[in-house]
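in:
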């Protein structure tokens, strides 16, 4: 293993394992070793899984999945109502552990964060050792497991943390990065959502090695502005610093449908699902906003947005769904064919205290 020059950053990505579900299993012995899903109840309209335990994931149950689909896959799954106040407190305790080692902490959500330990507070010097100690402290003090990825930049560290889940630790050093990127499926690349990934595959681009064959000009021509970023990232270049105080401007979700929607009840059903997803994300990041925006894309690819502002911050699924439906009704919905609907929340104002990472928009969408 080659020694990294001093100019390399030492970046750790910590990702809690099935965070909400693990907290519930820790606090409720009757849930341990059983398939549980934290989120909307199946008897309600638009119920969505926020997090599934690993016992449930074995059956294919996963985040953002409709609750009714989860039951089809795993009839024995136990639905648990989320306790976001508890998750936020546990997240605060996790951050306190992080802060023993560095002040350069960029939270992405309640359950994951980037840490820059190039110069760690305790003078340990080894990012691998720092990650090991953090994982041990989280388990000893909070009875929870976390997975860690260690590398020289944020993108590679984030990918690495997912490799040996749960309770994993993976180091990808400078000399291994390019070879690692070449074998990586395109859908694993930062900022590549399902639509972009499918577009790449339709072009015969399936792995990082395939992307690497394109020049920067070709990447930009085919994928627009993100193409330049893809060109760099496939070569292991990611200069984004860990940003402790980055503020969220907006958060939302959208869905492109398998077939165009023409009936109002279909549209409203989809808005219920999207609103639940947005509400889950807002809760996860500890956010509420004063402006709700509806996005509509028609089969002609014409796109419109409509928004409504409130005097007080909102974030619950019911308010988001109701607002989106009212905004939709105010448009001309007669004889239209809709291929995409989206809901976003913004105008968080001075009440925002949580931060998240600078993930491209694809990371916050449902496709």
């Amino acid at each position: 293993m080659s020694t990294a020059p001093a100019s390399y950053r030492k970046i750790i990505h910590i990702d809690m394992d099935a965070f909400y579900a693990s907290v519930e299993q820790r606090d409720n012995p009757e849930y341990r070793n059983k398939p549980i899903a934290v989120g909307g109840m199946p008897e309600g309209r638009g119920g969505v899984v926020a997090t599934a335990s690993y016992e449930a994931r074995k059956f294919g149950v996963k985040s953002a999945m409709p609750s009714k689909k989860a039951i089809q896959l795993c009839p024995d799954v136990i639905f648990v109502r989320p306790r976001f106040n508890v998750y936020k407190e546990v997240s605060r305790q996790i951050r306190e552990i992080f802060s023993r080692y560095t002040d350069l902490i960029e939270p992405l959500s309640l359950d994951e964060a980037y840490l820059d330990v190039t110069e760690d507070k305790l003078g340990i010097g080894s990012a691998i050792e720092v990650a090991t100690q953090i994982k041990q402290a989280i388990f000893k003090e909070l009875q929870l497991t976390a997975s860690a990825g260690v590398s020289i930049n944020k993108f590679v560290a984030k990918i690495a943390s997912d490799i040996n889940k749960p309770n994993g630790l993976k180091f990808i050093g400078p000399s291994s990065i390019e070879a690692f990127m070449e074998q990586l499926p395109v859908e694993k690349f930062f900022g590549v959502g399902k639509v972009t990934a499918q577009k790449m595959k339709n072009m015969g681009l399936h792995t990082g090695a395939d992307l690497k064959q394109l020049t920067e000009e070709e990447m930009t021509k085919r994928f627009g502005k993100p193409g330049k970023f893809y060109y760099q990232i496939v070569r292991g270049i990611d200069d984004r610093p860990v940003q402790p105080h980055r503020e969220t401007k907006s958060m939302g979700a959208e869905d492109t449908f398998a077939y165009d929607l023409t009936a109002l009840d279909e549209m409203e059903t989809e808005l219920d699902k999207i609103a639940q997803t947005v509400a889950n994300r807002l809760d996860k990041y500890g956010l509420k906003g004063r402006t709700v925006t509806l996005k509509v894309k028609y089969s002609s690819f014409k796109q419109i947005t409509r928004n409504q502002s409130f005097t007080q911050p909102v974030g619950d699924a019911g308010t988001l769904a109701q607002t989106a439906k009212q905004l939709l009704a105010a448009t001309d919905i007669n004889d239209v064919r809709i291929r995409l609907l989206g809901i976003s929340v913004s105008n968080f104002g001075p009440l925002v205290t949580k931060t998240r990472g600078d993930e491209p928009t694809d990371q916050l969408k449902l496709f």
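note: The chain has a mean pLDDT of 87.
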